[in-house]
Amino acid sequence: MSHSVTVTRMTTTSTSTAIIVNTGFLKTASGLLKLFETIIAAICLFLAFYFQFDRTLSYKISVYEFFICVMACALITSGCLLLACIFSLSTSTILTKTLFELIYHSVLFALCLAASITLFIETKDTRYGNSDKMMTAAVLGLILSILYLVSTVFAFRTYRGL
After folding, report:
1. Domain enclosing residue 111, as ranges
2. Which residues cross the membrane (predicted)?
3. Helices (H) and strands (E) in the chain — how many of each?
4. Which end of the chain is flanked by fewer CB atoms within 10 Å, N or C?
């Protein structure tokens, strides 16, 4: 019975004291996903803060606050992971094989999906001046949740070694 074995080796040598930037991480699917997750979360948070709900209208303000909390968590965590993977040569290879990536992406997928759907429904039912901007934030949140779903699939495959 014969089988094939693939061995992948990565040797990194560093002798300088300067900060080393792992630009190769941004060329991978995981790196691009993290970059776009961070950018879209920042845009959603900007839209939610800049074009606030009109607090004089009667609607559930908790929907708006839930969306802001979820997008802030997504931006902070994705941004920190992106920076850690860019500025550390070993983080991008070690972190992707841990259970943290799988749990993190699946939880943020569920939270972004819930926050975006509730904001979408509330914005669609409410008539106020910034409804088109909030609708844009809700749609971008849905796109962000799709990116987190794709990241969850990649994290699962990497964790299982598929």
Report:
1. 23-49+58-160
2. 32-51, 63-90, 102-122, 134-156
3. 5, 0
4. N
